[in-house]
Amino acid sequence: MQEISQPLLIIITGPTAVGKTSVAIRLARKFNTSIINADSRQVYREMRIGTSMPSEKEQSEITHYFLGHRSVTEEYDASRYEIDVIHLLNDWFLHKRQIIMAGGSGLYIDAVCRGIDDLPSVDPEIRKRIRKEYEESGIEQIRKLLKEKDPEYFAIVDANNPHRMLKALEVYDITGRPYSSFLTGQTKQRNFKTLMIGLDLPRQELHKRINSRVDGMMADGLLNEVKSLLPFRNRNALNTVGYKELFAFLDGHYTFEEAVDKIKAHTRQYARRQLTWFRRYSNIRWFHPSDMDGILDYIRKNVNHNN
Description:
13 helices, Rossmann fold, single chain, Histone, subunit A, 9% strand, 307 residues, 2 domains, six-stranded parallel sheet
């Protein structure tokens, strides 16, 4: 009896603004399948413009899962994402052999491909002490502590996101282990294979795309979107590039032009951190986003090999 091949999860990833959505949609059409969102901020329905969520037309052409399915008022993280996506895949692969995952959130992709170790329960006293230190000493002290205690995570974390850095320090103080050690534990067994495709561009070209995307967001009404989210500005979902700079503008800390320039600069920094994360993968194959023939040939070879 011929052995039944494992189904295939095709992952399209890379830095922000590189063109993941366009490539994923073209592939989904080609293989008659759907797309799983792997952008940790596109899960929030209120953050459509600032996260460059696929348009209504794009969503009407191809089914997208985990896109705008949560509110910024809800707590959602990689652990819950892992559970939700694996549940979907278990059902999906009963009937179809391929599905595409597209996005640039490395932790979310890792959660599905490898699984995330269970993190320790929060100690309220440790959390209170660390947050008090942050309030008294500021973000620079938090960065310094994290760099000393967990240099591996410090190299990839958003250094402007105190929530993530504080969480890493809490885990370290509770367990004596770096937070990064919980992200690289034993890989969980999956009943599907993965094919990791990375998209990249020359740096100047990527930066040009980032700047153009930010200008497009502003033209599409990002400022009004941010204003509508002012009541929820302290939610972790909104501690995100594009939103925090415009909150600062509304508070009078920046001029409008300064805020837009900050968004562009911080987005470029985020793209570099994404590439740092993805270059850890030994099984990723890199392509220029316009090289659809190369991408299709690579997928077909792996699909045939898988069969």
